[in-house]
């Protein structure tokens, strides 16, 4: 049976989701979570375009880069309406991004698990580096 997940990208300034992605398989923290963490950790948020590697000019740019990196073939990852609530997901990852120069929080991740009747239980909330540590601990615990 597949482990489904939703990945949402939020812009701090907008306070609403920019895009929501549905991940059909391997949505647990030690797989999709670890992929997301590996993507987020090296990225530096910039206010404006930069030619430096691993930069994102805002939350929309970050979300677009995530899609470009992980949507490499038909199936598995889908863009769904930003306000999607129920895709029979086991996990939800919420990535909130902003600009440090505005005093915004940068690359915060919150992870929820789903339980009966669509209720959510928060498993983790923190920055990208702490999220990577959380995913690694989940992988170690699962072995």
Give a description of the structure.
The protein is an alpha/beta fold and 143 residues long. It has one domain (5-138). Helices cover 27% and strands 31% of the residues. It is built from three helices and eight strands. It has helices spanning 29-40, 59-70, 128-142, and strands at residues 5-11, 17-23, 44-45, 55-56, 77-80, 91-97, 108-114, 120-127. The strands form two sheets. A six-stranded mixed beta sheet has the order 5-2-1-6-7-8, with helices on one face. The longest helix is centred in the C-terminal third of the chain and has 15 residues, at 128-142. The protein is globular and about 40 Å long. The model has no long low-confidence stretch (mean pLDDT 87).
- Strand residue percentage: 25-35%
Order of helices and strands: EEHEEHEEEEH
Low-confidence stretches: none
Number of strands: 8
Total helical elements = 3
Distance between the first and last residues' Cα: 19 Å
Main sheet overview: 6 strands, mixed
Radius of gyration, taken over Cα atoms and rounded to an integer in Å: 15 Å
Number of domains: 1
Mean pLDDT over all positions: 87
Shape: globular
């Amino acid at each position: 049976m597949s482990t489904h997940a939703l990945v949402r990208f939020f812009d701090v300034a907008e306070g609403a989701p920019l895009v929501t992605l549905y991940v059909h398989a391997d949505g647990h923290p030690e797989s999709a979570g670890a992929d997301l963490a590996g993507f987020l950790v090296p990225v530096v948020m910039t206010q404006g375009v930069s030619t430096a590697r691993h930069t994102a000019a805002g939350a929309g740019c970050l979300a677009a880069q995530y899609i470009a990196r992980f949507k490499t073939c038909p199936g598995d990852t889908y863009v769904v309406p930003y306000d999607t609530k129920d895709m029979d997901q086991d996990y939800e990852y919420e990535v909130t991004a902003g600009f440090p120069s505005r005093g915004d929080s940068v690359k915060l991740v919150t992870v929820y698990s789903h339980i009966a009747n669509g209720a959510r239980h928060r498993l983790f909330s923190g920055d990208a580096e702490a999220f990577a540590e959380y995913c690694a601990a989940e992988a170690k615990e699962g072995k």
